[in-house]
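ugh ok fine here u go
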Amino acid sequence: MTDTNLDTLEALPLERKPFQGFRKVFHVLASSTFPLFYLYTPFQLTHPQTRVILLWFSTGCFIGSLLLDLFRLADKRFNSQFMAQFAFLIRKSESNRLNGSTFLLLAFSIVIYFFSRPVAITAMLFLSLGDAAAELGGKNFGRLKIFERSLEGSLSFFLVAFTVAFALLSDLRVAVLGALAGTLVELFSFELDDNLTVPIGSAVAISSALVLFHFSSQLLAF
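structure:
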């Protein structure tokens, strides 16, 4: 192999970095539309109306994404073409499994259906913003490894999640516990996709914290 070919091979990883950046930006923008739509309820919609629209939309998108995944996984030729065409949006590791968007849409449908509006919005933003912060923090500053993650990435997730939770819920205790739970779920999501586990795990933790502290406040009031 010539020196020219070696130089070309060494340059390949550098050429792929912008695509990964584009994938992350797309992920943040696309996943943020759900909680932001729920938060600001445009077109003079009421909160219940917005919830129904989001639930139908997220569920419909999930079914469509799932069917597409099942079809491409059953057809190797189509799967190869699909992965090559959308390599700038999909991780290479998703070539033989459901893609992250499918898990995300399922998780969003679940939290919108089962949890209150503030909890669902917070949990969805944990994923869209916290996950991006963890990846950026881990890749740029990660030095201390924790399992498959980095301490710096996990701290980045926690800080962003805490900021989001405190801004939306205005409760320091709930914000700390919710952000901590989301960070731990993201950290220990080995076999399961964190697009699924982070929103659901965070929503459960935030709801539990709200019930716990509300109940404690009632007891103290007696």
